[in-house]
Amino acid sequence: MLSHKHLLGIEDFPREDIQNIIDTAFNFREVLDRPIKKVPSLQGMTVVNLFFENSTRTRISFELAQKRLSADTVNFSASTSSLKKGEGFKDTAQNIEAMKIDAVVMRHPAPGAPKHLTEFIDAIVINAGDGTHEHPTQAILDMMSLQEKFGGIKDLNVAIVGDIDHSRVARSNIYGLVTMGANVTLCGPPNLIPDTIIDLGVAVNYNIDEVIEWADAINVLRIQRERMGIGLIPSEREYRKLFGITEERINRNKKEIVIMHPGPINRGVEIDSGVADSDQAIILDQVLNGVASRMSILYLLLGSKDGDMK
Amino acid sequence: MKLKKLPKKLLFQNAELLDPIKKTNKKGNILLVNGKIADIGIFESPSDVKSIDCNGLTLTHGFCDLHVHFREPGNEDKETLESGSRAALAGGFTRVCTMPNTNPPIDSPESVSYIIEKSKDCPIYIHPIGAVTKGQKGIEISEMGLMNEMGAVAFSDDGLPIQNGLVMRKALEYSTMLGVPIINHAEDDCLRCEGVMNEGIISTRLGLPGNPNIAESTMVYRDLKLAEMTGARLHVPHVSTATSVDHIKHMKSNNNNITAEVTPHHLFFNDESLVNYDTNLKVAPPIRNDISRKAMVKGILEGVIDCIATDHAPHTLHDKETTFDLAAFGMIGLESCFGIVKRVLVDNEGLSLINLVELLTTAPRKIMGFNCDLLKVGTEAELVLFDSNEKWIFDNDNVFSKSINSPFYGQKLTGKIKYTISKGYISEIS
């Protein structure tokens, strides 16, 4: 059992909850390696995947997790045009709840939207990414991947590189890693790292080579092309030169470090193909752990009241 | 709230008569005859009149709010001149100035006259503020002269800060011949960018785009320097940052034409209250951090900020019951104002009740050039009676606005409005 009804963000989750989710995820990871990858844990439960923003991998990952747990799933993708007017959000949510569902997995472009949703409905809400606020399941799968690689998270040196300001992945990772006792350093262009962020217990270093030397693992964020040319990032080539995780940089470094990326990758911008495809990279392990992490979260929020994992 | 015509004669007996001009607070009576003050002080009570026992109540000037949005014409679903008047009465306000950002905006003598005509039958005094620029577009100055003749008491493009420095300069210069204040919502659009709340650790945590202090303070500084250069009257609305207060303080030391206001919500809240994405706390300028909030309190205590104004901004549930990024800016404020500012400034900060009343009565009236000396024989009754010790909890029942977008519900307050007398009416506030 977890101390919260919903998973709206990692910020409020205590260490015990996070560890519980990760440990349970490893149990499900074992299920995923079986020939028959399905358990009946959430049989009879209905989960709605409510996606107000385009997503392929997160939605598929959630859907697979739900199916592996034998839950019934419904996918709903709302058009963004009606969303812009603020229409439909409450109505949609209440309509869906009226059909007797147990949980909603929601992705939404507005920070705080999942919290807002909990004000209208009784079902369990799982945040699958809310604007630039949080992406808690990504943080869980990232931490699970770190634990898999290093045996634990405490005292690890973890760097997060990229557009921190606009990244929900960065925020959730910061909260989770700091809670779990890792050392976190952020790296990226100064205009994409809010100066107040050090209050969250992280360090900031604008020199990528120093950061690579320091880190045990680097989480490389996707650079969104829409940030280019509006005074935030002058060009892709300049970004790559100053902050890119290039083969030269990685080869120059004496110690082998673990490379992570939440995807999708801009090859040759924030990370070189040679690095992304190397043995140091655990990007595909992250994807697999994503399914296990989401199974764990769904199970702990919805299913644990029914007794032990079957 | 019971709203009735004043009887021909009405006696307020044994009230604390608080005169913010003479700065006195003495027990006494006030006799109204035909809506005017006929006698004041200690006198033999006439036997043939209706009277209200005011023991324990303070009787003073009706409050004046120089910054409200009554949404008429165009958004009568949010507020009308009539419903706004009732909200004002509930808060002890007898006189308000309405901002021109209606639909269409009040940017011509005809539209000014519409407000004047429409508010004639309202139970409070309503003064329209005209737009500085045509259509509030910030490009061409409006017919300020004709609007002023028709009754516009000040000019503002509130909500839409005048970005172009030349337009602001020309407007200030032009206004000098009228002697009325220009009120510029001070905010640099580019620096504000997409900001929906104060920029700081809370916006970083919430992932919401921040509006930095400097978006306001640089614009306040520009406006102050332009006012200095042109000799015009500048009123800075809803000050929210410490640096703005510093700029105003510095400029006021040698310029009598500068005035400023602060809202109850900027005195009361800090941005930590936004951690649950409460859209009723989404306002412009945003609720800042506690350093800024304390600077607002200090600005009042030091007299740098002249008065309190609510920026009463009604919105429908639909406009507010959405995600924070999409929700409308603004909160209602008339009904909760007195209890909130009394709590912050008197109960917590030790300001005297007389000084608080001054901030709500003579200070705003002076800025707008209204008659300030209201506790005088022969004056039309524009009065409020409040119980400064009554404890109450602000909730939905206290709201008379058409809208309910207040973040103050549930606040424990001390000091409650009991009666408001205005324009020949007496309202009993329950």
Structure commentary:
The complex is a heterodimer of chains A (310) and B (430). By secondary structure, chain A is of the alpha/beta class. The longest helix of chain A is centred in the last third of the chain and has 21 residues, at 283-303. In chain A, helix 1 packs across helix 12 (283-303). Chain A has helices at 15-32, 57-68, 80-84, 89-98, 113-118, 136-150, 168-179, 208-214, 236-243, 247-252, 273-276, 283-303; strands at residues 46-51, 72-77, 103-108, 124-130, 157-161, 183-187, 203-204, 217-220, 258-260. Chain A folds into 2 domains: 15-134 and 290-306, Aspartate/ornithine carbamoyltransferase (Rossmann fold, 3-Layer(aba) Sandwich), CATH 3.40.50.1370; 136-286, Rossmann fold (3-Layer(aba) Sandwich). In chain A, the strands form 2 sheets. Chain A has a 5-stranded parallel β-sheet with strand order 7-6-5-8-9, sandwiched between helices. Chain A has a 4-stranded parallel β-sheet with strand order 2-1-3-4. Chain A is 40% helix and 14% strand. Chain A is globular, with a radius of gyration of 19 Å. The model of chain A is unreliable at 306-310 (pLDDT under 50). Chain B has 430 residues and is an alpha/beta fold. Chain B folds into 2 domains: 2-59 and 377-428, Urease, subunit C, domain 1 (Roll), CATH 2.30.40; 63-368, Metal-dependent hydrolases (TIM Barrel, Alpha-Beta Barrel). Chain B is 29% helix and 23% strand. Chain B has helices at residues 81-90, 109-119, 144-150, 165-175, 189-192, 201-206, 213-230, 242-252, 264-268, 290-301, 317-320, 337-348, 353-360, 362-368, and strands at residues 2-5, 9-19, 24-33, 36-41, 50-53, 58-61, 63-68, 93-98, 125-128, 155-156, 182-183, 197-198, 210-211, 234-236, 258-262, 307-308, 383-393, 412-422, 425-428. In chain B, strands 1, 2, 3, 4, 5, 6, 17, 18 and 19 form a 9-stranded mixed β-sheet that branches. Chain B has a 5-stranded parallel β-sheet with strand order 10-11-14-15-16, with helices on both faces. A 3-stranded parallel β-sheet of chain B has the order 7-8-9, with helices on both faces. In chain B, helix 2 links the parallel strand 8 (93-98) and strand 9 (125-128). In chain B, helix 4 crosses helix 7 (213-230) and helix 7 (213-230) runs parallel beside helix 8. The model of chain B has no long low-confidence stretch (mean pLDDT 97). The chains are: A alpha/beta (310), B alpha/beta (430). At the A-B interface, helix 5 of A face helix 6 of B.
